[in-house]
Every structure is written in C-alpha cells, then in structure tokens.
Specification:
The chain is an alpha/beta fold. It has one domain: Metal-dependent hydrolases (TIM Barrel, Alpha-Beta Barrel). The protein is built from nine helices and nine strands. The strands form two sheets. The chain has a six-stranded parallel β-sheet with strand order 3-5-6-7-8-9. Strand 5, helix 3 and strand 6 form a beta-alpha-beta unit. Helix 1 packs across helix 2. It is globular.
C-alpha cells in the first residue's frame, strides 16, 4: 500500500526537505512562459526554500517555434537571479539547465555536437508534444544516449496519447530513459486523468525524479496547501543522488 508522499508539519505546510533538490522549474525572468521579473523570481525562490528545498536547477524552455533560448541567454539569466537571490539573503543554491522540446532543431543540435545545458550527471531534460505523438520518440531517446547523455523525460503523465497503451512507459524506462513526474500532477492540477496516470507510474515503480515544474508563485502555493491523500511520501525518488554530484 502506498504511503503519503509529502509529510506535513503541524502548521499544515508541506515539507519537502526529504526531496532536497528540484530539477524542473521556470524561474529565469522573461525568457519563456515562467516568471516575468526578478522580483517574481525572488518570490518563487523564497517559497521553494520555505518548502525545504536546498538546491534547484531551473530549466527554461528551448522550443524553437516559441522560445529560442541559447546557453548564452540562459546562463546570463542565471547569473542575474543568482545575484538577486544572494542580495535577498536566500541560501537556496541555483543552477540552470534547459527543458528541450524534441523537435527538428533539437535533433540538429544533438547531431552537430552543440552545447546543451544538462542536469547533474549529463542528464538532458526533454519533453514531447502534449497532443500529437512523435513518430520517432524511441529513436530520438536512443540517439541522446548514443551522444553521451542521459535522457530524462519531463512529466510523462501528461502525454495523453500514451494512455491507450501504458506499456509504452515501461518500454521507455527499459530503453534507458529516466522519467520525472510533476508534483502538480499529484495535486490534481492538470485533471483526474493526469493524476491517475501519475499514480499508476508511481505504483509501477517507473518514476525516477520528482519536479515542481513551477512557472509562478501560485503553483508553489497550490503545492503548499494541497492535502490530497494521493500524495505519497515514501516513494524512493532519486533526487538526492543528484545533490551528491551537484
């Protein structure tokens, strides 16, 4: 039987210090659909610290039709928020990677050996389209491995076209892809079907990492206040091993 995912303090605030590091967020201002200002970024980082996080890797979108972010753009933004957090007296440590949308541009960057921003351990956070499946998902993930990276698939519970054949998740994991579930999925934020799929993935021990995928303060407030019993606390997420190679 699954235990609760998030233990709560007496003040009913969620305590995530057993997770320690968040590997998926959008906290660099003005470069994707995440926070828009430095003040907003300070606010979300303050909330992350209050939730118990000690480290985070913020991951702006790289999606060439919408967000043409380069390592230079992202790392410049990282420097700005690092300075702002220090001036605000925050102790949470922050680095940057990226959330790469698997499209033609991503494949070209991979093949051409361009610089890609990774999570600890040369992990590449990647995402798929939400509504239309790619024809070459398995081939692309294998190519990521061939090029010396570890693929981490962001929020697999949100790809609705997998729902008709849940065995695809095990195939992806067996192929060497690590899967990252969103905390927001476990609050019911994206709907019951996403919640049920996230729980199924947990029950079948297919999830490696937990991420907030927070884009704004309201997302973190929802995580903080939620008391859904579907939140399971003893699941062996491996976030902490990333701290060890931080």
């Amino acid at each position: 039987m699954l235990n609760w995912l998030f233990e709560k303090k007496k003040n009913n605030h969620v305590n995530l210090d057993h997770i320690g590091i968040d590997i998926h967020s959008h906290f660099i201002p003005g470069i994707d659909d995440g926070v828009e200002t430095i003040d907003e970024s300070i606010a979300v980082a303050t909330k992350m610290q209050s939730l118990g996080y000690r480290y985070m890797v913020t991951t702006p979108h790289v999606m060439w039709d919408c967000y043409r972010n380069t390592p230079e753009i992202i790392l410049s933004g990282l420097q700005s928020i690092q300075q702002a957090y220090a001036m605000a007296g925050l102790t949470i440590q922050v680095r940057a990677a990226a959330e790469y949308f698997i499209d033609e541009h991503f494949s070209e960057m991979l093949i051409n050996g361009e610089t890609l921003l990774t999570l600890p351990g040369k992990r590449l956070l990647v995402e798929l389209p939400y509504s239309t499946p790619l024809l070459n998902t398995s081939e692309t993930l294998f190519s990521i491995i061939e090029h010396g990276y570890q693929p981490v698939l962001a929020h697999p519970e949100r790809y609705t076209y997998f729902y008709n054949d849940l065995s695809i998740y095990k195939k992806l994991a067996d192929q060497g892809c690590e899967l990252q579930v969103n905390i927001l999925s476990l609050t019911g934020y994206y709907g019951d079907n996403v919640l049920k799929t996230a729980e199924w993935l947990l029950k079948n021990n297919l999830i490696t990492f937990l991420g907030t995928d927070a884009h704004k303060l309201q997302h973190l407030e929802m995580i903080n206040k939620s008391d859904r019993k579907q939140w399971i606390t003893k699941y062996p997420f491996q976030n902490e091993k990333l701290i060890n190679i931080w």
